[in-house]
Amino acid sequence: MHILTFDIGGTSIKYGVLDRAGNIYEKGKFKTPNYNIDALISGIAEVKNSYKDKYEFEGIAMSCPGAVDDVSGVIGGASAVPCIHGFDIKKKIKEATGLSNIRMDNDANCAALAEVWIGAARDNKDVLFVILGSGVGGAVIKNKRIHKGANLHGGEFGYMIVSEDYTTLSTVATPVHMANSYARIKGISEGSVDGEQVFKLAQSGDEVALQEIKKFYRNIAIGIYNIQYVYDPEVIIIGGGISVREDLLQNIEAAMDELMKTVSIAKVRPTIRKCKYSIKE
Fold first, then answer.
1. Helix (H, G, I), strand (E, B) or coil at 188
2. Where do runs of H (alpha helix) occur along 64-135?
3. Is 113 helix (H, G, I), strand (E, B) or coil?
4. I need a surface site. Which of 55, 63, 184, 224 has the fewest CB within 10 A?
5. Looking at residue 281, what is its pLDDT?
6. What is the pLDDT of residues 204-213, one digit of tens each?
């Protein structure tokens, strides 16, 4: 028996055929019909039907953006795929595919579970997973199980206030913010440079780029420090597009060195690792 899997993203819907050991037999993707739920459901059914003569499926597992309620089948909140929110999507998928066993969870939770299952935190039970992308998100793992919270907002670290003027972590600890801050200082339009370009400019000696990158890593370190002392996990895993950078941990650790020296009362230093399964996997 195999499992048909889907990852619903704002640009594409990725899919695969896996077994319970995590082996991948097939994979592919199709363009996300962001505002057309019928087209999205049809796409899922077409993928299932394309494999019907090759595999016997025990069910479908789905990774979705938003506040995912696997019991009711309703995805709350908002995302780059508006058509999936506010109704029982599991019911529609069951009707379209003929498969009754449909399970789904938030995309950050799914990524975190992969890391504690066969990834960077496979030997740990209590883990925090931090995703650095256009915002800051993540997941809380207790005894290798997701803690979703009373309002399905467990792991939404980006809402954390990190300054006296109520600035949140998501507005100061992302490559997007770093690039926009660089643009403002340089007097150019926001969006004219991205995070990757700022990193390249720093390599060429651009002082503003170097300063903004230092602030970026300091803010990440502050966020990690705060969640360490809230939950006291064994390890904090970093994911998201930034995780592909070879110097990521080195720079976060350097910022953490400075923080730990400044906050003399702090005795527990966070253990930080990069995720095994990056956005490019």
1. coil
2. 89-97, 107-118
3. helix
4. 184
5. 42
6. 999 999 999 9
Query: In whole numbers, what is the pLDDT of the chain averaged over residues?
Result: 94
- In the sheet that 235-239 helps form, which strands lie side by side, from edge to edge? 145-146, 136-142, 127-132, 235-239, 272-274
* Contact present, 193 and 208 (Cβ < 8 Å): no
Q: What is the pTM of this model?
A: 0.85
Supply 250's token pair: 């080195």
User: What residue has token string 């077409």?
Assistant: 46
Domains of the chain: 2-100 (3.30.420.40), 120-274 (3.30.420.40)
- Those residues whose C-beta lies under 8 Å from the C-beta of residue 247, and which sit 6 or more positions away, are none
User: Tokens standing for 106?
Assistant: 């938030």
* pLDDT tens sequence across 245-269: 999 999 999 999 999 999 999 999 9
> What stretches of 173-279 adopt beta strand conformation (E)?
235-239, 272-274
